[in-house]
Amino acid sequence: MSKSARAVLAVAIAVAGIAYSSWLLEFVLHTGLDPTNSFLSELDAVGQPYREVFSYADTLTGTLAVLASIVGIVFLPRRPLITTGWIALLIFGASTIADARLPITCIPTPVHPCGGTPSGLFPQLHHIHALTSTIAVFAIFTAMIAFSWAAYRYRAWPVLRVVGLAMLVICAVTTAWMLIADNLPGDYALGVAQRVQVGTMSLWIVTLGIAVWRTPTSARLR
Description:
Layout: H1 3-19, H2 51-75, H3 80-101, H4 128-153, H5 158-181, H6 190-214
Helix pairs in contact: 1-2, 1-6, 2-3, 3-4, 4-5, 5-6
């Protein structure tokens, strides 16, 4: 792959990461949701005023991730961990597109749970959207672990060995925060936890783009 082609690939990955942080627009758009307690899936729920904005951003993220992964698999050096990372990123992209195309159809409240399902810390996840979101999160975690491991194993991508690993740790901590809090009574600002989680995922994707841009295609992976 030429230097210019690698730069285009890096930009595509970085733009995917930036688009995945479209939830930041909730601080300038009147969404009517409280970031402390609401979930990001509620931003593009059916009937929300700015649903199309967040839906298109997720679709862009997913499309770029899928295309970048295919290019990475075909044209960049192949090693088991790196290939695993690209495949995981591809699955993340496809799942994120599905997220955008299959939004939740209602935002539940303790008084009006959707579809009669009991309300709780994760009531809005009683939907097929839960499956696509779970796959997306699992896939991006797999990609983060695989690429970080590859950065150490093959002595490549220095930025992933430092910044990328830090993002992975923060993301893991916030995910644990959400999973543990789901089994405890009370309010644990799960909206904040998810926003930190997704924010670090976005930053990690941008970091991957930087790593691809700064590492020559001809670099030997040991």
